[in-house]
Specification:
Blueprint (H helix, E strand, L loop, with lengths): L1 H6 L3 E5 L3 H12 L3 E5 L20 E4 L1 H8 L6 H7 L2 E3 L1 E7 L5 E7 L7 E5 H13 L4 E4 L2 E7 L4 E10 L5 E7 L2 E4 L6 H6 L6 E16 L20 E7 L2 E7 L5 E8 H9 L4 H8 L9 H10 L3 E9 L2 E2 L3 E3 L2 H4 L8 H18 L5 H36 L5 H9 L1
Parallel strand pairs: 1-2, 1-12, 2-8, 5-14, 12-19
Antiparallel strand pairs: 3-7, 4-7, 5-6, 9-10, 10-11, 13-16, 13-17, 14-15, 15-16, 18-19
Helix pairs in contact: 2-5, 2-11, 3-11, 11-12
Bound molecules: flavin-adenine dinucleotide (FAD).
The site of flavin-adenine dinucleotide has 32 residues, from helix 2, strand 3, strand 9 and helix 11.
């Protein structure tokens, strides 16, 4: 009898255990689905796992869009747990040098009511979501499983299991049945690739001519009795920007007093600096005044040389689903450039909205699920496409308009 009841539950498989996939699993589990999460990598809570640091920025800006999606995930202390490790950023701090050579910093608040966005450690947020899922009896986390194929008519998926080869030395494969697949496997999504074979998907991707590289401002060592906040070398409550017209350097605070910094710059400038890494500190002195007093020249050179120079992709597609069996969310559906700080936030919001359509059609009948998915795709497309566009436009805003309000207008007039 118990088995009969179990068979009536919806089997939802989630591809990808990033922030969006884990939140999707939580929403599904709280609605009583039998949930399995398949992740390509090993468990990021395992100290042996190679951290994601250099495929995704270490810390991110979490905004109300994402916070609300976590808040509505169900009855748990998850949001509180995540918030404990965040730092509010009330505005951006613009750094520059006056015509007389004096360094200045100018705070620009995000909100007249003082509301903030929050610096959050990407790994910490992801771990909190995984811990939450681990505590749920109807969730199974399956690591080292890479989605390699899917049949969305027969509702079957195939995974390659890494690290456990068969006697022929090749990785083994496993077949999994499902009612619903939620593809949250990032910008290079395999779920999206297979979905394309089943639906007339419009698809557009663009690599912008900007690369990014990560740096770090180390925390200050505290003297005995010193105020713990003194560990931050610059204001912890701001997102710091060194605008440079064609380049930009930003810094986001971390709980330990350090700042994760990102250099955004056209690829040709990376090529030039690559040829003479010793000129990195003088480049910073010229374009990002004050940074060399926060990061030593040796650290600047070693971060520039050792950390990867990574591309930025922008993806738009539609629809996001096929029939009643698959939907893609997060970066898999709408990877965007990071200048609006909304990629993850928008992905988390996808989940809140997706499940509001499942709640509108709460039965587990495939016909209801297909209505929910079709309405979700139609509803979500315009917003997702607009956020992608805003993210692209905000690059001009952040690197130039923060110092010259007319710059963006001039640039727009030149380009149009
Ligand atoms: P991902 O984080 O990419 O997770 C996908 C998961 O799927 C991964 O764990 C991957 O291993 C797994 N996977 C991939 N392929 C397979 C497969 N075939 N089978 C099984 N598993 C698979 N967003 C913000 O909201 N705020 C910010 O401030 C911000 N800053 C950013 C700064 C930078 C420099 C960059 C590059 C991005 C930034 N973003 C920011 C965007 C944010 O990182 C992404 O939008 C977010 O990580 C997307 O989450 P996701 O879960 O959809 O995908």
């Amino acid at each position: 009898m118990a088995q009969d009841n179990k068979d009536k539950r919806q089997r939802t498989i989630v591809i990808g255990a990033g922030p969006v996939g884990t939140l999707a699993a939580l929403y599904a589990a709280n609605r009583g689905h039998d949930v399995e999460v398949y992740e390509l990598r090993s468990d990021l809570r395992d100290p042996q796992t190679v951290p994601l640091n250099f495929t995704k920025s270490i810390n991110l800006a979490l905004s109300e869009r994402g916070i609300n999606a976590i808040r509505q995930s169900g009855p748990s202390a998850l949001l509180e747990k995540i918030f404990n490790d965040t730092i509010p950023m009330v505005g951006r701090m613009i750094h520059g040098e006056s015509s007389t050579g004096d360094l200045y910093e100018k705070s620009q608040n995000y909100d007249v009511h003082g509301r903030a966005i929050y610096a959050v450690d990407r790994g910490g947020l992801n771990k909190a979501l995984l811990d939450e899922l681990d505590s749920m009896p109807n969730v199974k986390l399956v690591f080292n499983h890479k989605l390699t194929g899917a049949d969305f008519q027969k509702r079957k998926a195939w995974f390659e299991i890494s690290g456990n080869p068969g006697t022929d030395g090749r990785n083994r494969e496993v077949e999994v049945d499902f009612d619903l697949m939620i593809g949250a496997d990032g910008a290079h999504s395999a779920a999206r690739y297979h979905l394309m074979k089943y639906t007339r998907m419009d698809y557009q991707q663009e690599y912008i001519d900007t690369l990014w590289c990560e740096f770090q401002i180390r925390p200050k060592e505290l003297r005995p009795g010193e105020d713990p906040d003194a560990r931050f070398r610059i204001s912890p409550n701001h997102l710091h920007i060194w605008p440079g017209k064609d380049f930009m350097f930003i810094a986001i605070p971390s709980f330990d007093g350090s700042f994760t910094c990102t250099l955004f710059m056209p690829s040709e400038n990376f090529v030039t600096l690559d040829a003479t890494p010793s000129s990195v500190p003088s480049f910073f002195n010229k374009y990002f005044p004050g940074v060399t007093s926060l990061i030593s020249p040796a650290d600047l050179i070693s971060s520039f040389t050792n950390n990867p120079h990574l591309p930025l992709i922008s993806i738009k597609c539609n629809p996001y689903h096929f029939s009643d069996s698959i939907v893609i969310v997060g970066d898999a559906a709408h990877a965007m450039v990071p200048f609006y700080g909304q990629g993850m936030n928008a992905g988390l919001e996808d989940i809140r909205i997706l499940f509001s359509f499942f709640d509108k059609y709460p039965s587990i009948l495939p016909s209801d699920r297909s209505k929910a998915l079709a309405e979700y795709s139609a509803f979500r497309k315009p917003d997702a496409h607009v956020i992608n566009d805003l993210a692209l436009h905000n690059y001009v805003e952040m690197r130039a308009s923060t110092v010259s309000p007319t710059y963006a207008l001039r640039k727009w007039l030149e380009e149009n």
